[in-house]
């Protein structure tokens, strides 16, 4: 009986030890979420422009192209819900913040939870999704946060990348197409070149149908719009200017999107912009972007990001000049 119990304990101890080691490694591991959030805290006294949104902004807006000090706090599948709450968690420290870009994508009004990424984001910035229990995610990232499959893949890739490329590469998980030797700058990483497998009608139809299905099943739009309006009011109360933007997608892909949903997003964004007297810049199918500017059908590559960022910077500079003229006119009248 004693030998049997020993075998049972040994049988339990080995996987438990593996899980504990994995949990420790995951807690110590840097992530894109942590990298961006901690970077924003370090640059808190400098940040004048904050860039929010999903992967369209993550890969599509380069803060280095701005004359004002900009910082990219967007992330993969990051919803407006998390845009708002991550920003609010930092806002008391961002003493020089002047502008906040809020990205509106095809599915932005369809979801507030990021699903499994709610936990991944939480590990990086501490922001929770309302109504979600984080007890087990805190207990074991391996089992209940990232899930065993994702945890194994993350740790495996980290070991392989370090063995293959050395210690000079970025130390957090990134998607294929990102140059591992280019460190994040002001929260920005970029896709390089173009993934030619993504530019065909089958790929356009598959991705657009997937997103449309998500939107079809959602009933969150009004709640998300109300949350967005509250976010805008909070920013304006602190003399921070919100700007709504829709980043560009490849024009041929946009043709596959549900037109009623696209138009509904534009109408809602224009209504909010008019209500709060703010800007809405829609670049979704802009003729100023070509296939060479995109890594895939949705995301700009580094070249396209530089182009897009320069356009946003020019627009911000125009607002700055107009503001100066108004202030000078006000002083002259006095």
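Sequence proposed for the structure above (334 residues):
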């Amino acid at each position: 009986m004693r030998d049997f119990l020993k075998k049972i304990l040994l049988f339990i101890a080995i996987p438990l030890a593996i899980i504990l080691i994995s949990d420790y490694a995951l807690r110590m591991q840097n992530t894109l979420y942590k990298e961006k959030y901690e970077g924003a805290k370090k640059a808190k006294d400098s940040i004048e422009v904050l860039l929010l949104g999903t992967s369209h902004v993550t890969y599509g807006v380069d803060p280095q192209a701005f004359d004002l000090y900009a910082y990219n706090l967007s992330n993969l599948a990051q919803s407006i819900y998390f845009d708002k709450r991550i920003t609010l968690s930092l806002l008391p420290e961002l003493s020089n913040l002047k502008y906040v870009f809020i990205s509106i994508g095809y599915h932005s009004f369809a979801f507030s939870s990021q699903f499994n990424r709610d936990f991944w984001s939480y590990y990086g910035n501490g922001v929770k999704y309302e109504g979600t229990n984080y007890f087990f995610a805190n207990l074991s990232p391996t089992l209940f946060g990232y899930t065993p499959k994702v945890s194994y893949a993350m740790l495996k890739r980290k070991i392989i990348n370090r063995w293959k490329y050395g210690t000079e590469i970025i130390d957090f998980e990134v998607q294929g197409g990102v140059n591992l030797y280019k460190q994040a700058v002001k929260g920005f990483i970029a896709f390089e070149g173009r993934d030619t497998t993504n530019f065909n009608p089958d790929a356009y139809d598959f991705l657009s149908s997937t997103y449309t299905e998500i939107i079809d099943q959602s009933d969150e739009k009004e709640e998300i719009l109300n949350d967005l309006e509250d976010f805008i009011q909070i920013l304006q109360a602190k003399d921070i200017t919100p700007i709504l933007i829709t980043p560009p997608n490849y024009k041929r892909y946009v043709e596959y999107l549900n037109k009623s949903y696209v138009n509904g997003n534009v109408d809602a964004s224009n209504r909010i912009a008019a209500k709060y007297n703010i800007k809405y810049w829609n670049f979704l199918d802009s003729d100023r972007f070509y296939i060479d500017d995109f890594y895939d059908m949705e995301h700009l590559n580094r070249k396209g990001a530089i182009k897009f960022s320069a356009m946003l910077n020019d627009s911000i500079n125009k607002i700055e000049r107009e503001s100066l003229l108004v202030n000078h006119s006000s002083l002259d009248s006095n």
